[in-house]
Specification:
Elements lengths: L1 H35 L3 H13 L7 H16 L4 E13 L4 E7 L3 E5 L1 E3 L11 E8 L2 H12 L3 E4 L10 H20 L5 E5 L25 E4 L1 H13 L4 E6 L2 E15 L4 E11 L9 H21 L5 E8 L7 H12 L3 E7 L7 E7 L2 H8 L2 H5 L5 E4 L16 E6 L4 H4 L12 H21 L2
Parallel strand pairs: 5-6, 6-7, 7-8, 11-12, 11-13, 13-16, 14-15
Antiparallel strand pairs: 1-10, 2-3, 2-9, 4-8, 5-9, 10-12, 14-16
Helix pairs in contact: 1-7, 1-12, 2-7, 7-12
């Protein structure tokens, strides 16, 4: 009798597990099918990029994107849609950005440049000086004020082509963009020109935020295209006394109000426990912000739309958050975390998409090993769709402030070889986004949220 009871219990448990796995497999397929056969999210991205375009925080375009994305979520009939106010910087690039190199040996040539974010302008007269080329801050220090004062410093360290994953290559070269002006000003430089952070050889200058830190003097800082950087370096080798002229009219204005935009599907069992999925709504003004990060915003909205379309009623409340101000001061992510802590909200999971709309390959998981092991149990459901990288690592700039609440954070990982062709430049346009690749990313996030919502972490 006992033996029969044991067999019965075993078969019951086994059949229950098998049934649950079959149900999960079916739901995962439904999620992916819904994503791949629907174009709402992709069409919305098209509107954001082509009708609104570049939307750096504080700009009229950023304000328009806030109102538009709120309307999009309202029209999709999410349970709740609302704004979360914050203050943001208001920096304006201006209409003039010119650089000309003049050599007694080679003549004159224009370079493709753009001001780095939050750089001061040159004034109406511009700046003209000899150029000193360096690869890093150590070289700058060794040259010192005697050779730097009154000159323009040219930071020309390329991203390392030998990295397979391109984000470490970006990280290895970004200090010259972020802190180059601060460091050069210490030795009396009157400006800096920085090689664009891209692995591509083209004529698109790539912008990005920079900081003056504790520098006493704020000097103009511009990025030059990789083709322009190569030309300038080549000319300098034969004519070290050539002159570079830079003209830019970037300006600062008083801070203004902006908003995170939030849409929710209310949880059926734990409505006061939250799962966050997000991207950042702001984008650099010289681009249309397609891969960085219009895709992440539209994917986040798409997760909720997929759940609604399939009649999946989450146990926990799922929030799609369009974060503002990731590119300048990250105030949107900080405000979201600050208010979550202030309101004593219980958050159980957050995922961010900010690596472009390229084909998803996996997830970077900022959590303990027990959580990672649990997520790995679901890996088999993803592998059929080419999603196989489940690794411990960072999550994302906007959700990282949520670490103070001590719950798992995850970043969607995409195929990275082309990402820095588009990052922070005019080449980041809607036509560079493949609908299927983008939607596979939406499906990947929706699937992971499905499992977290059903089984916890």
């Amino acid at each position: 009798m006992i033996k029969k009871l044991f067999i019965f219990c075993y078969l019951f448990v086994y059949s229950t597990i098998l049934f649950s796995q079959n149900t999960d497999s079916l739901n995962v397929k439904k999620i992916v099918d819904e994503a791949l056969t629907n174009s709402i999210s992709y069409n919305n991205l098209g509107y954001l990029c082509t009708k609104i375009g570049g939307r750096i925080c504080g700009s009229p375009q950023a304000a328009e994107a806030v109102a538009w994305s709120k309307k999009v979520m309202e029209e999709l009939k999410f349970d709740t849609v609302y704004l979360q106010e914050l203050k943001v910087h208001h920096w304006v690039r201006g209409a003039v950005e010119k650089a000309t190199v003049t050599s007694t040996k080679f003549g004159e040539s224009k370079l493709s440049i753009c001001s780095l974010g939050e750089s001061v302008g040159t004034g109406s007269d511009g700046i003209t000086a000899q150029v000193v080329e360096v690869k890093n801050f150590e070289e700058l220090k060794n040259l010192g004020s005697a050779k730097i004062k009154g000159k323009i410093v040219f930071f020309n360290r390329p991203m390392d082509q030998t990295f397979f994953q391109t984000f470490p290559a970006y990280g290895g070269a970004a200090d010259q963009r972020v802190h180059g002006a601060e460091q050069a000003s210490l030795y009396g430089a009157i400006g800096v020109i920085v090689r664009s952070l891209t692995l591509e050889n083209d004529d698109f200058p790539h912008t990005g935020v920079m900081s003056y830190g504790k520098a006493k003097d704020s000097i103009p800082a511009v990025a030059v295209s990789t083709m322009g950087a190569d030309k300038l370096s080549l000319w300098l080798k034969s004519d070290p006394t050539l002159q570079l002229s830079i003209l830019s009219d970037a300006k600062f204005y008083p801070e203004v109000s902006s908003y995170n935009v939030i849409g929710e599907l209310k949880g059926t069992k734990f409505p006061n426990e939250y799962i966050t999925v997000g991207g950042h709504l702001d984008a650099w003004d010289i681009s249309s912000g397609a891969h960085d990060d219009g895709v992440g915003c539209m994917q986040s909205i798409e997760v909720l739309r997929i759940f609604k379309a399939l009649g999946i009623k989450p146990k926990h409340t799922i929030r799609a958050v369009m974060f503002m101000d990731e590119e300048i001061a990250q105030r949107g992510g900080k405000k979201y975390a600050e208010l979550a802590k202030l309101k004593k909200e219980k958050h159980i999971f957050a995922i961010e998409s900010d690596r472009g709309g390229l084909c998803p390959t996996g997830f970077s998981i900022d959590a303990g090993l027990d959580t990672i092991k649990k997520i790995l149990k679901w890996k088999k459901f993803f592998e059929a769709y080419g999603i196989h990288e489940f690794e411990k690592g960072g999550s994302g700039v906007d959700i990282s402030p949520l670490k103070i609440l001590n719950f798992p954070l995850v970043g969607l990982v995409t195929e990275s070889q082309r990402y820095f062709n588009y990052h922070h430049c005019a080449n980041d346009t809607f036509d560079k986004v493949n609908r299927r690749e983008m939607q596979l990313g939406s499906a990947a996030m929706a699937t992971l949220i499905y499992f977290i919502d059903k089984y916890g972490y």
